[in-house]
Input
Amino acid sequence: MSLRRNTLWNLAGTGLPLLLGLVTIPYLIKHVGVEAFGILTLVWALIGYFSLFDFGLGRALTQQVAVARSAGLQQSLPSLVKTGLWFTTATGLAGGLLLGALANQLAVHWLNVSPSLQSSTSQALLVAAIGIPLTTVTTGLRGILEAYEDFRMVNLLRIVLGAANFGVPALSVMLLGPSLVGMVVGLIAARILVLAAHAWQVHKKLPSGWLTAKLSKDNMQKLLSFGAWMTVSNIISPMMVTADRFFISGILGASLVAYYTVPFEALIRVLVIPSALTSALFPRLASLAATNPEEAKRLYKKCLKMVVAVLLPICLVIMLGSRWGLALWLGEEFAIHAWKIVCILAVGLFLNGVAHVPFAAIQAAGDARATARLHILELVIYIPVLLLLMKTLGLAGAAIAWTLRVGLDLIFLMIYKNKASNLS
Output
């Protein structure tokens, strides 16, 4: 299976929905208002963040299933997969209950939402809680498809979900008016359909009768030995990606969130390039790390050079065209507030994109513990720096703190990767 073809499918899966977002984001800001749209981006972030309740089993399933397939252990797959999916279902339900319990507190106290929007925000978060188990199980199913390197199907489904994330809220506004709850209900309905489609595709690939396979304590231990450390990364990494917007809402006010989150969400989509490559790279490296370390090393270096060559000019263009591009897309007033944020984030974008490659290589070798420890260290440094810079420099301070954090992440990952005996 071609790594290039798989990468192109990953690019399409993440990139194509953004074309719809270019149209729907201005529409939503115009019809629901800057603050309500900012709250919608927080709902997106919370659904994504609470998906950490898969306890790393999505990536663990990719790694374990890929290794089992390369070793010819097809008979072990039914129990391995069923055990992993059962666990992601149970933990996803726990995550959904937790978000539901926190919904009112978030809406009324923690997010600094305007009084007129507090009730609808609380209701929207309650609905969003249903999306947590849907997301965790879908992540597990996607991990299995990626282990089979079926990136075509993975990304056809990702296109559907991505298009729904942007298109369903706009459609809801057209049909039901500017209802935050209506937009979130639509998003959850879309996730149900996508989950069913993933389940059907996995069912077709696995040996018949896998649904009746026994749950295995040994398989659970193997998955959790990898997934537990992945969970640490899954808790901390999204926290460091999304914490800034919640601090902005709580300290500076929800009315300013959109000036940061809209350019951030637009820019972060550029990471579809390294993400597409490393997602395709991961199952291949997981197999090669155990069977052909020299080939794994060559593949790693090739991918690192490719990411640098592609991302550097893109980030330079973003910086130079930030003011003009924002004014054209969202209007001059929005551009005045946000163009400096874009310039700062573009630097971090490049650093974070390059870091995708050593991160994937380290985890493909089964060393999720190393990346988790790095994330713990980064979090301890990042949060105080974020608060200090945000209080002194406002939105620009939040952007600077994020850029410094991803730069530190890249340095740590490269140092550790160069010391790893299996890939260097």
Summary: The CA atoms of residues 10 and 276 lie 4 Å apart. The chain is about 85% helix and 0% strand. The first helix runs from residue 3 to 32.
